[in-house]
Amino acid sequence: MATKVISVKTVVAIGIGAAIMFVLMRFVAIPSGVPNTNLNLSAAIVSVFAAIFGPIAGLLIAFIGHTLTDLTWGGIWWSWVIADAVFGLIIGIFWKLFKIEEGGFGVKQAILFNVIQIVANAIAWVGVAPLLDILIYQEPSDKVFIQGLTAAGLNAAVVLILGTALALGYARTKVKAGSLKKEEDVENVEDQNIKNVSKFDGGLLSFIGWNILGCLLTVLTLGICYPWALCMVYRWKINHTVIKGKRLQFHGSAVSLFGHWILWLLLCIITLGIYSFWMFIALEKWKVKNTDFVED
Question: Are residues 163 and 244 in the same domain?
Fold first, then answer.
């Protein structure tokens, strides 16, 4: 049997990542003061997707997203498209070390992630981009290296702040193997004389933090990443809920919700908002379908 080079999940992630990157590069770019060099939040998206889904995803998201953006401006600047793709590829090569999908993205992994992203930015923007600018477009060396240094610095800062926050937030939605079971065992010891206890053990600070993160994720991506925000907040709520001594767990994923979400939005648009009433019910059904008790 032939081994799959790329999974369906990764293909979906590439499409979503490229779309988010396009939106951020096209509509949320902030001028840096250096000609043709902007502060782009898209660097965080490329780095996080690459760190979760691997090198092929990182390369293609950056290549497709940057190419589509350039096309809307009238022409493709291949040296920077290739540099972006190289950046995504380098981050993705080390994706297994970050342990984001397993929920193991801690301080050690965050430091490693940022060391690698800084090196990747230097290679892509201080090395690849300027050299290709000179070779392909005969640009002045002093100009392109200033642009490259600026791009590398800005991208590294964006990934350090926003990329790390997104990676940490996503990892926190992924429960480590056996962790919920361990939590339940502790609760069973504490409540051995109260078998039918029901409670919610989430805290105020974590509630505020997850909701702020969800709002930022939704606003910065112009709503595209709302399914991710919803899953993060809802998973926090459900995983901190105990019903009659049994802890709940949420195993839904934003990738599986994304297709439903797009369909529901289209139906709302077609029906001039009327379908929004059914959309609420459909979303609640999806949540319940992906919620169950932690197995004993």
Answer: no
